[in-house]
Amino acid sequence: MKNSLRVERAIKNITQADLADAIGVSRQTINTIESNKYVPSTVLALKIARVFEKPVEQIFILEDTD
What we know:
- With about 70 residues, this protein is mostly helical.
- About 60% of the residues lie in helices and about 5% in strands.
- A two-stranded antiparallel sheet has the order 1-2.
C-alpha cells in the first residue's frame, strides 16, 4: 500500500511530530508509515484521513497484487 502522507503534510505545513500528536502516536510511527514500512490499522488510517479532511482512499492507495 502506498500513501501520500508526506505530500499531505507539506500541503498543511505540519511536521511528522504535529501529525503524531494529533492522532496519538509517535513521530517514528508516522515516519514508518510514510516510508511504506508499516501499514496502519483501519482506525489509525481513519484518524489520519480526518486530520487532512480527506477520504482514506485519497491518502492510502492499495496497489494491485497481480
